[in-house]
Amino acid sequence: MLKYLLILFGIIYLSGIVSSIFKIVETVSLLETLEKYLQSATAESYTSFIPHEDYFPARRALLLRYPRIVHHLGVNCPNLAYGQPDNEIYSNATLIYNDLSMQRNYYLSSFIRSFNPRMAFWKLLQIPTTIVRGMGFSLSPKSSKFINPLGWIITYILNMYAVEIKALINSFFH
User: Fold this and answer.
1) Mean pLDDT across the chain, nearest whole number?
2) Please, what's the b/e burial string for 34-62 (b: 16 or more CB within 10 A of its CB; e: otherwise)?
3) 74 torsion bin: left (phi>0), alpha (psi -120 to 50), beta (else)
4) Are the CB atoms for 133 and 148 separated by under 8 Å?
5) What pLDDT was estimated at residue 157?
6) Is the predicted pLDDT of residue 25 greater than 70, yes or no?
7) CA 56: distance to chain centroid?
8) How confident is the model at residue 54 (pLDDT cuts 50, 70, 90)?
9) Structural contact between residues 124 and 14, judged by C-beta atoms closer than 8 angstroms
């Protein structure tokens, strides 16, 4: 059982690092798209908006990537839509650029923390709660502190009596 826990620990440790890398790369890609859009026009004031020749392809690329931006920023992300006036899209894109830059900083911090094996160890200990939440139950922090040790104790007992449990199940089918 210890061998499986070490393998699971290694998987959790590496997946945390890889997941952080993917989030950072995608955020940087989205920021590049936003930069291209923001450089494709000039907004001197809210009413004065001057698009350059590459404005419409850059706007199309930005609106195409907008759902991924919302995925990273959540529901508080400023709105971008096809029917909006260009100056409103531009001002919202400026706000999104700042928010996404800050989100990238959080992802970088998470990437650095993911190298700490203690973070993977805590994720390993919280597997029973993760399974219960995956089934659709909402748990309070107090119940999580109860379910995690209970889940690991049940796992240990089931592993200890694995041969007897298999024999019992086989006896039902014979």
Assistant:
1) 90
2) beebbebbebeeeeebebeeebeebbebb
3) left
4) no
5) 84
6) yes
7) 30
8) very high
9) no
Name the strand (E) or helix (H) holding 42: strand 41-43
Q: Say if CB 84 and CB 63 are below 8 A apart.
A: no
- Tracing tokens 């089918």 back to the chain, one arrives at 173
Pairing of strands 41-43, 49-51: antiparallel
Domain residue spans of the chain: 2-118, 139-173
In sequence order, what are the beta bridge partners of 49?
43
The single residue listed with the structure tokens 């019992």 is 168
pLDDT tens by residue, 83-136: 898 888 999 999 999 999 999 999 999 999 999 999 999 998 888 898 888 898
CB 20 within 8 A of CB 112: no
Cα 101 to its chain centre, rounded Å, is 16
The residue written with tokens 């790369």 in the block is: 25
For residue 89, give the amino acid letter: I
Cα separation, 46 vs 67, in Å, equals 25
The pLDDT, as a whole number, for residue 38 is 93
Evaluate the CA torsion angle 70, 71, 73, 74 in order and state its sign.
Answer: positive
Contact, 63 vs 82, CB < 8 A?
Answer: yes
Contacts of 161 (CB under 8 A, 6+ apart): none
